[in-house]
Amino acid sequence: WLILGIGIFVIALGGLLMVYSQQRGEQVRIGDSLAAAHAALPAVISEQSHRETQLIQLRSQLAQAELLLYEAEARFPQLVEDIEYGEILFNYADDWNLEITSLIRSEPRDKAVGGVTFSVTSFDIDLVGRVIDIRRFTGTIAASEYLATAAVERVSMTIPAPATGEEVRSSANIELVIYGVAGGQ
Questions:
Q1: C-alpha count within 13 angstroms, C-beta hemisphere, residue 144
Q2: Given CB 3.0 to 4.6 Å as the disulfide criterion, which of 9, 55, 65, 170 pairs with 159?
């Protein structure tokens, strides 16, 4: 019985040593993986911090772009009013001693410019006066802060031959286009 007991004891001890050896190998492998993870952790934290910083910067840039868009939209009129713009044009004509003989506004239409859709209203202006004053009138329109969203699209003039002793009064037709916010946005 003693030999049988010793044999069972040796077999059990051998099995335990084998299990211990396997567990020790697993423990070393897990320890190495844990050390590698600890070594990589600062880089991962740094990368995460960098991405969060980038995200904050991108959100800031987006907010600035949205503010610029809002400011740009605020400069464009929501609705082009005949009376308001007509009064401005008549005042400019009066400043340059010109007579507006006709002022016709078109119905607003949408127009895409550079991927942005604007509401466009045209004014067809007929006026009479000296050539230099007509040029000054168009220059005043171009420099006007009240007409900052407007563009002179076309100017056609009729300049009669001067008669002796008479002041030459030329006539002009000007197409003025005013850009506004499309669709009442």
A1: 20
A2: 170
What is the rounded average pLDDT for all residues in the chain?
Answer: 84
Tokens of 93: 């004509």
135-141: which pairs have CB atoms within 8 A and are 24 or more residues apart?
Answer: 136/96, 137/92, 137/93, 137/96, 137/98, 137/174, 138/174, 140/92, 140/95, 140/96, 141/89, 141/92, 141/176
pLDDT tens digits along 39-66? 888 888 888 888 889 999 999 998 898 8
- Residue 40's contacts (CB-CB under 8 Å, 6 or more residues apart) are none
Dist. CA 127–CA 162, nearest whole Å: 18
The per-residue pLDDT for range 116-155, each reduced to its tens digit, is 788 888 899 999 999 899 999 999 988 888 788 888 889 9
